[in-house]
Write a structure and sequence with these properties.
Elements: E1 4-6, H1 10-20, H2 26-44, E2 50-56, E3 61-67, E4 72-78, H3 82-89, E5 96-97, E6 99-104, E7 111-117, E8 126-130, E9 133-134, H4 138-149, E10 154-162, H5 164-173, E11 178-184, E12 187-188, E13 194-195, H6 201-206
Parallel strand pairs: 1-11, 4-5, 4-6, 4-8, 8-10, 9-10, 10-11
Antiparallel strand pairs: 2-3, 6-7, 12-13
The chain binds 1-O-pyrophosphono-5-O-phosphono-alpha-D-ribofuranose and uracil.
Length: 209
């Protein structure tokens, strides 16, 4: 799966251990999701479009590459994906942000889309889809289908935790989308939850259970 990038870093292990723990409360969980998102973004943004400018230092001029920030849109999948936005936008302060609302049906595990509001000219942008959890892969595949249906050609995806089966499905459905994930776990349980996992990311971010 050439389009799947699994990060390896002691900082990710350290923060992941805290994120997983059942004793970690809502505030710390939210902060950890943000921090891990920044770490994943550092890797995911390594090859994004740049433009050359000339900068005058106090001593001389130098040619330097800078990011074409306005050509990038972040698209969190609601709800849990919203928890990643601050961690990424801190690196890309002028990126546009769109939203796709997607909820897994608890019985069928199929994604149901309930909201979509995207920046103008989305088809011309590099779109970075954000969702901390990639379990069956259904939500990610459907969100990417929606974006491609609108003419978006350049898509990346960032996740915090994934299951092997979900990564395989996304890779099969969208081999052109580069996926960056902080950690890959063992498997899914009978309810479609990642094991060992961290529980329900949306509920832990928003304190709804
Ligand atoms: C979670 C998660 C993903 C999805 C992953 O969202 O944030 O969007 O499940 O599962 P999948 O890979 O099997 O599709 P959920 O549906 O629980 O909604 P929420 O973010 O509103 O809590
Ligand atoms: N969604 C979550 O929030 N957690 C899982 O383990 C799987 C899907």
């Amino acid at each position: 799966m050439k389009n799947i990038h699994i990060l390896s870093h002691v900082l990710i292990d350290h923060k992941m251990a805290k994120l997983r723990s059942v004793t970690t409360g809502t505030k710390e969980f939210r902060e950890l999701i943000e921090e891990l998102s920044t770490l994943v973004a550092y890797e995911a943004l390594a090859d994004i479009p740049t433009v050359e400018i000339v900068v005058s230092t106090p001593l001389e001029s130098v040619t330097q590459n800078i990011i074409k920030e306005k050509s990038i849109a972040l698209v969190p999948i609601l709800r849990a994906g919203l928890g990643m936005v601050n961690g990424v936008i801190t690196l890309l302060p002028t990126a546009k942000v769109g939203h796709i609302g997607m909820c897994r049906n608890e019985e069928t595990l199929q994604p149901e889309s309930y909201y979509c509001k995207l920046p103008a000219n989305i088809e011309d942008k590099l779109v970075i889809v954000l969702d901390p959890m990639l379990a069956t892969g259904g939500s990610a595949i459907e969100a990417i289908n929606i974006l491609k249906g609108l003419g978006v050609k350049h898509i990346k995806m960032m996740n915090i935790l994934a299951a092997p089966i979900g990564l395989k499905e996304v890779s099969k459905a969208h081999p052109d989308v580069q996926v960056y994930v902080a950690k890959v776990d063992r498997c899914l349980n009978e309810n479609g939850y990642i094991l060992p996992g961290l529980g329900d990311a949306g509920d832990r971010i928003y304190g709804t259970k």
